[in-house]
């Protein structure tokens, strides 16, 4: 399969490495608005480099991976679907879900397979946690808690174009809690703080946030995020049920020390970045996409899933700004 890669920055270069190691991928064609980024990937993975996304789509790859900056996703996804090319689109599908209300129907009408990039759905520990909930062994769910704590902030230019911590970072948690519970979020209340680098205040963003979620069946969710978790990259999904509790991410790389000196766990080293923590999940995710593109399986993370997580992020952004609980029904058209 010949795969087109649009965007060869941090995640695009990583996807190039993952894709080129998949047996079913025979060649890559790459483009980036910053040609040197595409050249570096082209040289390293013997890929063909083209000038821009339009040229790449016109070269008719068997499938395309959109890994460019967030503001480009929606237009590129529309263009790839219009060209009839199976598409993997990094999260978020759109900076603003209200600009994409026609997308679910458009993709459905086109019949073009589209998968949105939420790698946690493929992490073996996350999958095991979901299985424990689904098989009834946890009883009924009282609380779902999802945590994403980055060890250090991304560059200022990335923060400025990211749409803020909820649309950029917490969106992984919002997708994970929807996916694991199979329920929809109906209300959010978010708080946050911009301490740290002045870039957060300048971008009208926060560096630490917590979001309380209420699901349509009454389950309570808690999402915690920060850009300043000095101990390491801490991603956990905790499910607390009436009959049992499990956690994904409670492993030997958990970046936390017990205050009780008799407890040795975790033995470390701490996870330091999403690429090391989720390397296997990314491999499974893109391997799955190759099957989706070939028509061998259904998309495991649809445009609708991508947009639902975005609506939760919109509600959290508004809740923080207006300092009040926000019902998702307030936002949807
Ligand atoms: N799923 C995940 O876990 C995950 C992780 C990291 C990033 N992401 C998402 O991936 C996207 C990229 O993130 P990143 O960290 O690689 O950012 P980045 O800034 O390192 O890279 C983005 C690249 O896109 C290029 N670009 C911008 N406009 C383009 C266009 N029109 N055509 C081609 N290339 C273009 C830029 O030149 C840059 O090289 C973001 O939307 C981010 O939310 C997802």
Quick recap of the structure?
The chain has 333 residues and is an alpha/beta fold. It has helices at residues 10-20, 35-45, 53-58, 73-82, 103-110, 124-134, 156-162, 165-181, 198-202, 274-277, 279-293, 303-322, and strands at 2-6, 27-31, 48-49, 63-66, 87-90, 114-117, 141-149, 185-193, 208-215, 220-226, 234-241, 245-248, 326-327.
Helix and strand run: EHEHEHEHEHEHEHHEHEEEEHHHE
Small-molecule binders here are: nicotinamide-adenine-dinucleotide
For the record, the count of structural domains works out to: 2
What amount of the residues lies in strands? 15-25%
Q: Write down the Rg.
A: 20 Å
The number of helical elements comes to 12
> What is the level-2 CATH architecture name of the largest domain?
2-Layer Sandwich
Give helix % range: 25-40%
Unreliable stretches (pLDDT < 50, length at least 5) are none
Average pLDDT score: 97
Shape: globular
Description:
The protein has 333 residues and is an alpha/beta fold. It folds into 2 domains: 2-118 and 283-300, NAD(P)-binding Rossmann-like Domain (Rossmann fold), CATH 3.40.50; 121-278 and 309-330, Dihydrodipicolinate Reductase, domain 2, CATH 3.30.360. It is 38% helix and 21% strand. The chain has helices at residues 10-20, 35-45, 53-58, 73-82, 103-110, 124-134, 156-162, 165-181, 198-202, 274-277, 279-293, 303-322, and strands at 2-6, 27-31, 48-49, 63-66, 87-90, 114-117, 141-149, 185-193, 208-215, 220-226, 234-241, 245-248, 326-327. The chain has a 7-stranded mixed sheet with strand order 12-11-7-10-9-8-13. Helix 8 packs across helix 12 (303-322). The two termini are 39 Å apart. The model has no long low-confidence stretch (mean pLDDT 97). The chain binds nicotinamide-adenine-dinucleotide. Residues 6-12, 31-34, 37, 53, 67-70, 72, 90-91, 117, 119, 158, 168, 274 line the site of nicotinamide-adenine-dinucleotide.
């Amino acid at each position: 399969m010949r795969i087109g890669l649009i965007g060869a920055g941090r995640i695009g270069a990583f996807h190039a490495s993952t894709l080129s190691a998949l047996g079913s991928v025979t060649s890559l064609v790459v483009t980036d608005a910053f040609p040197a980024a595409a050249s570096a990937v082209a040289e390293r993975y013997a890929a063909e480099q083209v000038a821009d996304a339009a040229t790449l789509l016109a070269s008719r790859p068997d499938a395309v991976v959109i890994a460019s900056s967030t503001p480009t996703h929606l237009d590129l996804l529309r263009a790839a679907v219009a060209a009839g090319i199976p598409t993997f689109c990094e999260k978020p599908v759109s900076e603003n879900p209200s600009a994409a209300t026609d997308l679910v129907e458009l993709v459905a009408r086109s019949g073009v397979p589209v998968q949105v990039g939420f790698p946690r759905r493929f992490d073996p520990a996350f999958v095991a946690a979901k299985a424990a909930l689904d098989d009834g062994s946890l009883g009924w769910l009282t609380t779902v808690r999802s945590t994403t704590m980055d060890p250090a902030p991304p560059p200022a230019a990335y923060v400025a174009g990211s749409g803020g911590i909820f649309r950029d970072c917490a969106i992984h948690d919002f997708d994970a809690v929807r996916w694991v519970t199979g329920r929809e979020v109906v209300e959010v209340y978010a708080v946050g703080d911009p301490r740290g680098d002045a870039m957060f205040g300048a971008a009208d963003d926060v560096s630490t946030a917590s979001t309380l979620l209420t699901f349509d069946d009454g389950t309570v969710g808690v999402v915690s995020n920060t850009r300043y978790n000095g101990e390491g990259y801490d991603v956990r999904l905790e499910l607390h049920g009436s009959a049992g509790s499990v956690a994904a991410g409670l492993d030997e790389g958990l970046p936390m020390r017990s205050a009780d000196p008799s407890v040795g766990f975790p033995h470390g080293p701490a996870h330091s970045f999403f690429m090391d923590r989720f390397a296997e999940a990314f491999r499974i995710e893109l391997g799955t996409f190759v099957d989706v593109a070939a028509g061998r399986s259904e998309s495991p993370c649809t445009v609708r899933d991508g947009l639902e997580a975005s609506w939760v992020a919109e509600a959290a952004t508004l809740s923080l700004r207006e300092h009040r609980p926000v019902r998702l029904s307030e936002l949807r058209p």
